[in-house]
Amino acid sequence: MVRLTVVRNEDAVVATAAERVTSNVDTSLADRGSAVVCLTGGSTPQRLYEGLAEEARAIDWTRVHLFWGDERHVPPDHPDSNFGMAHRALVAHVPVPAPQIHRMRGELPDATAAASAYEAELREGFARAGRRDQTFDLMLLGLGEDAHVASIFPGSELLVAGAGLPGPSEGESSRRGSNGRVAAVWAAHLNAWRITLTPPAILDARAILMIVAGEQKAEAVRVALEMPEDISRWPAHLLRSAADRVEWVVDEAAAGRLRNS
Length: 261
Ligand code: 6PG
Known about the structure:
Strand content: 15-25%
Structural class: alpha/beta
Bound molecules: 6-phosphogluconic acid
Radius of gyration: 17 Å
Shape: globular
Distance between the termini: 14 Å
Strand order of the largest sheet: 1-10-9-5-2-3
Number of helices: 6
Number of strands: 10
Largest sheet: 6 strands, parallel
């Protein structure tokens, strides 16, 4: 069963999401001694990060480990960088120790090399957090107007059965690292490479928080939550397999086309 929380407006989405992040981190610290959080790009997440920075004392950031779900193929100081955005909005303002900040290296000339490097970063980062597996405590995600999540776009090879297995052949437009948890994808509609976690890496998170606001997302929210499953066409349908580990926090405008909200 999907958990859907509809709130009044984007301010309320941000406030509700901040409350969920704080409580997830508290629980993770109590149960496991560290909190492993995966950040996303996007405009509503940016507002969430600014809110978390303003209330920095609500979280023990010294024991938080930060990763990213996807990245553009640009250096960290580029205006399009997801790391750069999160750094300006949050990371620069909270005491997360530098060795616990794990960004994707979008500046590497070869996006496939950046994906492989992030496989190693995941291994080392989770070990540093005292974890034997690579299960995120919290995965933050936004929703694209085409119902994409992270950089997994409609029609992506990452959405076909068996995704996550290594070894795509020469010429394929997505290339996964050796463990299949990170991929470089050629997004033809953007004429750009992206680096992204793959479905297996996203879906085994202990909690997944979808943050969506604005009328322009209303159709995407409707297809994501109410259309019969077609994962290849609507990547957000992936999240159905994570069932009640997923919560959607959506404002009234974005929920406006749902039949049962
Ligand atoms: C990115 C993302 C992407 C984003 C959605 C929603 O880097 O583009 O990680 O998946 O979360 O496109 O973005 P907005 O909140 O800006 O609409």
